[in-house]
Amino acid sequence: MLLLYDLAISSYGCKTRILFRHKGLEWKSLNPPDGYGSPAYCKIVPSGTIPALLHDGLTIAESDAIAEYLNELVPVPAMLPLSMQDRARIRAISRFHDTRIEPLLRAFFGQLAPANRNPDFIAENAALLQRRFDQLAQMVTPSPLLDGTDLSLADCGFAPSFAILNCLRGLFGFELNLPSSITTYAANLCAHPSVRDEYKAYVTALDDWVAAKLAS
Ligand SMILES: N[C@@H](CCC(=O)N[C@@H](CS)C(=O)NCC(=O)O)C(=O)O
Predict the structure, then answer these.
(1) What is the pLDDT of residue 17?
(2) Does residue 12 have its Cβ closer than 6 Å to ligand 1?
(3) Which segments of the chain have a pLDDT < 70?
(4) Would you say the CATH fold of 84-215 matches that of 2-73?
(5) Contacts of 181 (CB under 8 A, 6+ apart)
(6) Residue nearest to ligand 1 atom 11, measured at CA
(7) Sequence ranges of the domains in the chain
(8) What integer pLDDT is reported at residue 8 of this predicted model?
(9) Which atom of ligand 1 is least distant from the CA of 50?
(10) What number of H helices and E strands is found in the chain?
(11) CA 170/CA 124 separation, integer angstroms
C-alpha cells in the first residue's frame, strides 16, 4: 500500500498525485498529524514537509525523490527518456520548476489577505516570474509536452503551478506575458488524460483556500 502525507491544497502533493494516476497506482492520502511542520509530523518526517511517501518500510520526503522512486517502482509507462542526456535534461527542467518558478508563485501567497497587500512587491515578483518563464521558453520546446508525447517527471509539477498562476493573475491582475510556446504547453499538459482530473480537483482546492484567505 502506498501512503502519502499530503493535503489537497499542496502543489507538490498534486505533482505526486499526477504521477500516481499516470502509473495507475492506488494510494491513500493522509493528513499530516497537527499539520505539516508540527512536532508530531516532524517525528515521522523530520523536514516537516509534504508530500512524504510511506512504502515498504521507507519514509521519503521531497517530491522529486518520490517521483524517481515511483518511476523505478513501476517502470511502465516510463516517465524519463531513454538517453542519459535526455534524462539529465528532464531532471534539470524539474529542478528549475521547483527551485526557480514555484517559489515565486508561492511568494504571492503572503499578499492574499487584502490588509497585507503591497503593490510594489506584487509588480516586482511578477517581473521575476516573467524572467523565469522567458528562460523556460528558451530551454524547452514542448511537443506537445516536455518530452514529446510522453508525460515526464518534469511535467507533473507544472500542472499545479499553472493553476496557481491563473488564479493569481485573475486576483492581482499583474502584467505577465507568458511566451506562446508555454501557453500552448500549459493547455496541452492540463488536458492530458493523467493530469486533467487532478488539475480540476486542484483548482477547486485552490479556489476554496484562496477564498478563505481573502476573507481573513
Ligand atoms: N522541495 C519540497 C517542497 C515541498 C513543500 O514545500 N511543501 C510545502 C507544502 S506544498 C510544505 O511542506 N511547506 C512546509 C514547510 O516548508 O515547512 C518538495 O519538492 O517536496
Answers:
(1) 98
(2) yes
(3) none
(4) no
(5) 137, 140, 141, 142
(6) 49
(7) 2-73, 84-215
(8) 97
(9) 12
(10) 10, 4
(11) 17
User: Is domain 84-215 annotated with CATH 3.40.50.10300?
Assistant: no
pLDDT score, position 114: 87
pTM: 0.96
**What's the pLDDT at 33?**
98
Residue 27 phi, psi (nearest 5): -145, 165
What would the pLDDT profile of 168-184 be if each residue is shown by its tens digit? 999 999 989 999 999 99
CA atoms 164, 167, 171, 173: torsion sign: positive
Name the one residue in this structure whose C-alpha cell is 506562446: 180
160 lines ligand 1 (CB under 6 A): no
Cα 83 to averaged position of ligand 1 atoms, centre (Å)? 30
Q: Whose CA is nearest to atom 16 of ligand 1?
A: 49
Does 35 contact ligand 1 (Cβ within 6 A)? no
48 pocket-lining for ligand 1 (C-beta < 6 Å): yes
Which residue in this structure is represented by grid cell 512587491? Answer: 121
CATH 3.40.30.10 for domain 2-73: yes
